[in-house]
Each structure stands twice: as structure tokens, then as C-alpha cells.
């Protein structure tokens, strides 16, 4: 699927890089470095409608990115080291990049880990215990499977969509994404999804169907000194839609469960969804109160000395499956796209 907006973004990024503008302005916009955000790393694309393709890159592309970063002198660091560098402002003439992966997909173990080991590069995986235990689902993946299979979709007691053609299926998927994100409460999502799946003869919420690592697999990858495990709530809820007490509980319980299962309390946190609609000042304050050293959003931006005062709302650079060329990753990490994506702001915080 080709998006007109993607074509425009790609054209702007190619121009910024090939004209030399991105490298000339890197000192101003690139800051101390970047936190890279990934989700899935696998050789094949498993998005049947192409609508969740952005969440997946290939191991080859990961290899290219790490090779390129090392060759240009970028220091690849753990989240602990990243925090130290932000606190001290230490640069040593080199920018840093910290690699993070959200949700704990099992392809992180099978496909990404060998690439990190090959390059001896630290990485952080933000895991949500509810996804492992079957108490939560990656609902957007189930919705895509549902829309792919069905010719007609109805929300129980709510709107309905025809999905006979590919065009209708993609339109229905995007409408359902909005419905699940903004109309349903977080606690309603799973029961509604289960009912919709039952109507199509599909089973929902089976952990094995979700492609996330089980506890044994998470322990296996966590045993590598290169790997840091961070928390990502228990149920992968949009925290802005919860009360402050529930936010604190989701954060604390996810850390408790990871500590119990892995033997080490996570020091770093990632907000589920992580946009301005899912994480703000209140969530950043609670993450700090709950004792996390850092918390990352999904807002687009590079890391600057100003973030020293706001370590619980750190932006990231998403390496998107629809933008799998080095030129796009290099341009975004130069920082030149940060003000474009953030109404002119060079430093992105909560
Ligand atoms: Zn997530």
C-alpha cells in the first residue's frame, strides 16, 4: 500500500540528506544522540492487509543500520549508559544511539538478537507481562486478522462496516483502530474483541497466537548482558485513559512481575502507544515517583542536554517498516525532522 504522505516524507528526507542539509544542521538538531524504537524484526511481512507493516523491519535492515551507525562513529549504548550521558552531557565528540524494542515479540529473540550479538550492541526490550500471561492482547493485530477474514464487521451494539474488498477492509481497519483507541475504554477493548472474534469463529487472546515471547524465552534473552528488560505496563493500556491510581498500579505491578520472573527489577519504562494522547506530564510524574530511571514515549525526536530535567518523557526515532532505507534513518537521527514533526520544536518533551 502506498501512502501519498509517505511519498512526500520520503522525498523531503532524501532531499535533506542528499543536499547535505541534514549533516550541516546535525550539531543544532541532532543533540547528544537518539533512542531508536523498533517493534518487530523479521524477514517476512506478516501484515495481511499491509496496515501494520510500519511495525516490522527485516534483520538485514537492522544489520545495515547498526553497521552504518558504527562506521560513522556513533556509540551504541544501553539505556543505563544513555541516562548517564544525558545527566553528564558527556559526548566525547561522539553521538550515541540506544536501541529499544517494544512489546517483546518473539522475533526479537529469533531474528534481532543474533544481529545485536554479531555487532555486540546493547538493546532494551520493553515487556508487558499481561501480553505474556494472556491477560492482554495486541488488539490491533487481532483486528487486522478479523477484518482480513470477515466480509462484514459489527461492533456489538455499535457501528458496522462492510469489508468485502481490500479497499473496504483497510478502511474498516482504520475505523476500528479509531473506535478501539478513542470510543471504547481500555477495560472494554478485550471483551468487545472477544465477542467480535467469536462471531467470526476465531479465538482471541491465546498467548501462543500473539507472537510474543513467553517467560522462558524472555529469561533466555534477558540472560545476555547486552539485553536490558524494561517495563511496559501489565495490560498495555493507554495510561491517559486511566485514573492516576490505576496508572501507578500498572507501572508498579509490571515492574513487580518482571522482577519476580526475571530476578531483576526493571529500571526503565515505555508508555504504551506513547503519543501525546497516551502519555503526558501526569504519566511522567508517576513514572518518576514509581522509581523508574527513565521513560520513553513514541514522540519523534532526538535527545538533548535539556532532557536531563525530564528523563521520563524521552522522545524516540521510530525506524518504520515503510521507510526501510538507510537515508531515512540517517536523516531522522540527524534531528532535522524533529522540528518538522513537532511544530518547530527542536527539543521534544512531555
Ligand atoms: Zn507497546
Automatic annotation (TrEMBL):
CDD domains: CE4_Mlr8448_like_5s (cd10968). Is involved in generating a small heat-stable compound (Nod), an acylated oligomer of N-acetylglucosamine, that stimulates mitosis in various plant protoplasts. PANTHER family: POLY-BETA-1,6-N-ACETYL-D-GLUCOSAMINE N-DEACETYLASE (PTHR34216:SF7), PTHR34216. Transmembrane segments: none annotated. This is Chitooligosaccharide deacetylase. SUPFAM superfamilies: Glycoside hydrolase/deacetylase. One of its GO terms (biological process) is carbohydrate metabolic process. GO terms for molecular function: hydrolase activity, acting on carbon-nitrogen (but not peptide) bonds. Belongs to the polysaccharide deacetylase family. The lineage of its organism: Bacteria, Pseudomonadati, Pseudomonadota, Alphaproteobacteria, Hyphomicrobiales. InterPro entries: Glyco_hydro/deAcase_b/a-brl, NODB_dom, Polysacch_Deacetylase. It comes from Phyllobacterium zundukense. Residues 95-350 form the NodB homology domain. Keywords: Signal. It comes from the Bacteria.
Amino acid at each position: 500500500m502506498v501512502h501519498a504522505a509517505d511519498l512526500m516524507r520520503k522525498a523531503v528526507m532524501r532531499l535533506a540528506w542528499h543536499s547535505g542539509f541534514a549533516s550541516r544542521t546535525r550539531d543544532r538538531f541532532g543533540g547528544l544522540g537518539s533512542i531508536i524504537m523498533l517493534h518487530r524484526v523479521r524477514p517476512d511481512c506478516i501484515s495481511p492487509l499491509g496496515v501494520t507493516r510500519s511495525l516490522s523491519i527485516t534483520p538485514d535492515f537492522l544489520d545495515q543500520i547498526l553497521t552504518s551507525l558504527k562506521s560513522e562513529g556513533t556509540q551504541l549504548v544501553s539505556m543505563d549508559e544513555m541516562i548517564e550521558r544525558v545527566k553528564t552531557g558527556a559526548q566525547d565528540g561522539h553521538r550515541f544511539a540506544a536501541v529499544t524494542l517494544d512489546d517483546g515479540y518473539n522475533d526479537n529473540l529469533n531474528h534481532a538478537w543474533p544481529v545485536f550479538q554479531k555487532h555486540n550492541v546493547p538493546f532494551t526490550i520493553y515487556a508487558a507481562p499481561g501480553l505474556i500471561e494472556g491477560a492482554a492482547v495486541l488488539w490491533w493485530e487481532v483486528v487486522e486478522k478479523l477484518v482480513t477474514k470477515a466480509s462484514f464487521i459489527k461492533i456489538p451494539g455499535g457501528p458496522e462496516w462492510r469489508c468485502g474488498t481490500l479497499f473496504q477492509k483497510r478502511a474498516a481497519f482504520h475505523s476500528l483502530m479509531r473506535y478501539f483507541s478513542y470510543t471504547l475504554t481500555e477495560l472494554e477493548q478485550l471483551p468487545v474483541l472477544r465477542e467480535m472474534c467469536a462471531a467470526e469463529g476465531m479465538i482471541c487472546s491465546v498467548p501462543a497466537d500473539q507472537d510474543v515471547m513467553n517467560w522462558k524465552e524472555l529469561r533466555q534473552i534477558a540472560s545476555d548482558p547486552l539485553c536490558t528488560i524494561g517495563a511496559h505496563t501489565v495490560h498495555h493500556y493507554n495510561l491517559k485513559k486511566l485514573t492516576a491510581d490505576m496508572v501507578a498500579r500498572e507501572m508498579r505491578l509490571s515492574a513487580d512481575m518482571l522482577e519476580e520472573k526475571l530476578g531483576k527489577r526493571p529500571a526503565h519504562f515505555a508508555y504504551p502507544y506513547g503519543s501525546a494522547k497516551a502519555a503526558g506530564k501526569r504519566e511522567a510524574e508517576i513514572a518518576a515517583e514509581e522509581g523508574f530511571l527513565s521513560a520513553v514515549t513514541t514522540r519523534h525526536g532526538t535527545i538533548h542536554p535539556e532532557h536531563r530535567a525530564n528523563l521520563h518523557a524521552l522522545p524516540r526515532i521510530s525506524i518504520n517498516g515503510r521507510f526501510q532505507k538507510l537515508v531515512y534513518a540517517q536523516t531522522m537521527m540527524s534531528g532535522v525532522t524533529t522540528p518538522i514533526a513537532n511544530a518547530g520544536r527542536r527539543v521534544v518533551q512531555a
